[in-house]
# Entry
Amino acid sequence: MDFNLAVLNEQIQKESVFLDSIKAELRKVLIGQEKMVERLLIGLLAEGHILLEGVPGLAKTLAVKSLAQAISTTFHRIQFTPDLLPSDLIGTLIYNQRESSFEVKKGPIFANIILADEINRSPAKVQAALLEAMQEKQVSIGDTTYALEEPFLVLATQNPIEQEGTYPLPEAQVDRFMLKVTVSYPSQEEEKKMLELMTSNKLPDMISAVVKPRQILDARKVVRSIYVDDKIHKYVTDLVFATRYPERFKLESLKDLIDVGASPRASLNLVRAAKAHAFLQHRGYVTPEDIREVGMDVLRHRVLLSFEAEAEEITVEDIVRKVFDTIPVP
# Structure
């Protein structure tokens, strides 16, 4: 195993070099937001969709668009509004009078990277159409089913401060997202650099395509081969089960604060995201630190609070931190 692990580690170091090129391109237009960029790459490598939550103006759209340009993939931005229909998203059949037949007009969902801007602005039917495409990676128009081209990644955004006229995503649908990432303000120094870059006479350098989609698909296969020890699997299941049965893990104080614990998807996504994080670190094996690094973003939207927790103004983040602080690290 030691020999195989050493070989795998060497392979990962070679296979993951292209990530540095992507990061270098994104730095041309993005100041700071390193965590957001890292999470976008984790989603891309681990085949997991991402929900980005943050106030307007934090470069969420710019980051996603720049990533698509760096990978030479197709990109569509869909602005979700209350009057949007499922057909506006996936496409519809249009009657051709000249041919006396129906033709398929594909919607914007047919792209490699989709930015679903303010996903909670649209009614349940539209959200369901998007989430079905995310889960099945196919779309049905009329009697025909069309496979979505890989790599396929949905990055949805929602504004946490404005809830009027919105349709909150049901918990079961939010669970379809591998990560829920909260995007915070840049530091003062980062914002100063941003002003210098964006308000000078010299425009920022254009993003160049440095990676082909085939490289991403090949990298996904390598990510799946990253070694995960049994102790890591035990650590992951302990973390997830502690959100369901806190009293078993000396967390009795959390029992009345958690209404619903994390789903089995949490365990799967913790391991998948940790593998991608290890790949980003050019490493061929997963460590507990990888799990801890991605843990908050995987669990944040999968643990539902009780009324008691909300009354005491306890957040999901508080509970997840308590779980990570209590469960022994292997």
Q: What stands out?
A: The chain has two domains: 33-195, 226-326. The two ends are 19 Å apart (CA to CA).
